[in-house]
């Protein structure tokens, strides 16, 4: 079973930038699509972004569009990043990476993703 480890979180000020990393224990991205979710205290797990399939552009939640960028290390094929710019207090959450199958590309439902990591906490102060 694939195991993910997220890192890069921390305590930052509003307007700062942070880059999260997600490392997979195996070479899994060739037939699946990695994505990021987040969960704030007392709230449901929320879709953030997912890598695009072939020529398709990545998908982003409206709340992060234009500020966050998902990418992956194609040479390594086991690392995916989430570059987060212009952070806001509402971005405070535990950030998780997970994967979905190619056939489910376009879904933003957490139920269509699996192999969840333990998460990395991002806290944004105003």
Write the layout of secondary structure elements.
Elements: E1 4-7, E2 10-13, E3 18-24, E4 32-39, E5 46-50, E6 59-60, E7 68-72, E8 79-84, E9 93-101, E10 120-125
Parallel strand pairs: 2-10
Antiparallel strand pairs: 1-3, 3-8, 4-5, 4-9, 5-6, 7-8, 9-10
What does this structure look like?
By secondary structure, the chain is mostly beta strands. It has strands at 4-7, 10-13, 18-24, 32-39, 46-50, 59-60, 68-72, 79-84, 93-101, 120-125. The strands form 2 sheets. The protein has a 6-stranded mixed sheet, with no helix packed on it. It has a 4-stranded antiparallel sheet with strand order 1-3-8-7, with no helix packed on it. Helix content is 0%, strand content 44%. The model has no long low-confidence stretch (mean pLDDT 91). A hairpin with a 6-residue loop joins strand 7 (68-72) and strand 8 (79-84). The termini are far apart. The chain contains no helices and 10 strands.
